[in-house]
Design goal:
By secondary structure, this protein is mostly helical. The protein has 16 helices and two strands. The radius of gyration is 20 Å and the shape is globular.
Length: about 400
């Protein structure tokens, strides 16, 4: 993408990208709140209850690299519009599945919604491209602050739309179709630089990328932070149900979790600018470890509430930090390859995490799941020294 000048009017574009990301987050949180319960209602085997979430993640995993290549050719805005079309289609499939109580169709719908979600993950990269280099971490952080609306409206909306029709969950999926349609309309106002003409990327670029330790440090931070968060969040509604907590309590726990995920975005970029990326990522990993420790010490609503809120903040620090490191570790012509690789590994990690969540919860229980998360968080801490030396456009991530 063309690099904007420091004097370019990039702030209105950043605001629009934040709004678009907020619509995506509302959809994602609504889906997180209802898909596991819908799966539990429609699946023949309770161990498969989180399979719709797994299909959602797999949809993103198998498509995200192609999405990166597509956007390199047609531009961000056109790519984002294709994503909203997948969003409408997947939501309508989900509504139909809920109407006829079809578990297989529910999984198909969430798979398509996962493809739509993969498109929307590139909003943060668009923000980094439109902002001046010195403001990249803040731009990424601000776009992700749009998730606050998802934290508030997603759970609250799911409680309202869940019983809006005679069949549970139909209204929830129809609301996702409306949100995707609104995003399509707003994209008509998105102004981004035209796609720069690129020479063919040499084959050696792949070898250069995979041999670069700072890039892998950035990817590990984002992959582990996201996978551990999804692993525990996906199982939480079912674990709370097993502990005889009501749906309203579960929705509020998810609400505070998502607030923890996105409220820090107002200051995460500033923290990175002041303390550096590595300390922020390390703090995120420690907060996720604290979440597991709290979960291991009790199953009251308060335990779930505090643990999931800390997990949300930990995810924010690890994910924003990892994204910022990625932007400093690659050059402009490497963006399609590096971003596609990063997003693919995040999605495949999430697919494994969400797929194992339901199985482990059903077979070994909630406490064992929290123990299982610990080695991966320690891995992310061990990988941090390898993030030293990332450098692009004269900006270093040594701090």
């Amino acid at each position: 993408m063309n690099e904007p000048s420091a004097s370019a009017p990039w702030q209105p574009t950043l605001l629009l990208l934040t709004t678009l990301y907020s619509l995506t987050s509302i959809s994602a949180v609504t889906l997180a709140a209802v898909s596991g319960l819908a799966g539990l209602a429609f699946a023949d085997d309770p161990a498969n209850a989180t399979l719709p979430v797994t299909c959602y993640v797999i949809g993103g995993a198998v498509s995200t690299f192609s999405i990166s290549m597509l956007m390199a050719k047609v531009g961000r805005r056109s790519g984002f519009r294709v994503g909203t079309a997948f969003g409408v289609s997947g939501a309508l499939l989900g509504a139909w599945a809920a109407q006829i109580h079809s578990f297989s169709l529910l999984c198909t719908g969430t798979f398509v919604l996962g493809i739509a979600a993969a498109f929307s993950q590139y909003y943060r990269f668009a923000a980094a491209e439109v902002a001046p280099v010195a403001f990249r971490s803040r731009a990424v952080s601000w776009v992700m602050s749009g998730g606050i609306l998802g934290a508030i409206l997603g759970p609250e909306g799911s409680r309202f739309t869940k019983g809006l029709t005679s069949e549970p969950f139909v209204g929830s999926f129809l609301s996702l179709a409306i949100l995707a349609s609104l995003a399509f309309l707003l994209l008509g106002r998105l102004q981004l630089a035209q796609v720069a003409e690129r020479a063919a990327i040499p084959v050696g670029s792949w070898r250069s990328l995979i041999r670069r330790p700072p890039l892998w440090g950035a990817i590990i931070s984002a992959v582990v932070g996201y996978a551990v968060m999804l692993f525990l969040m996906t199982a939480t509604p079912i674990a709370m149900h097993q502990c005889h907590h009501g749906y309203d309590d579960t929705a509020r726990v998810i609400e505070w979790h998502v607030l923890g995920m996105f409220v820090p975005s107002f200051f995460t970029g500033s923290l990175i600018g002041r303390f550096g990326t590595r300390p922020v990522i390390a703090t995120g990993a420690l907060l996720a470890l604290a979440c597991a420790a709290i979960n291991l010490n009790g199953t009251s609503v308060a335990h779930f509430w505090v643990a999931l809120a800390l997990l949300g903040v930990g995810w924010n620090f690890m994910f924003v930090g990892g994204t910022t490191l990625l932007t400093t570790a690659i050059s402009t012509h490497e963006q399609p390859l590096a971003q596609g690789l990063n997003e693919s590994l995040i999605y495949f990690g999430n697919a494994a995490a969400s797929g194992l969540a339901g199985y482990l919860l059903h077979t070994v229980g909630w406490q064992a799941m929290n123990y299982a998360a610990l080695p991966f968080l320690f891995l992310s801490l061990i990988a941090l020294p390898f993030t030293r030396g990332a450098r692009v456009d004269g900006i270093s991530s040594q701090a």
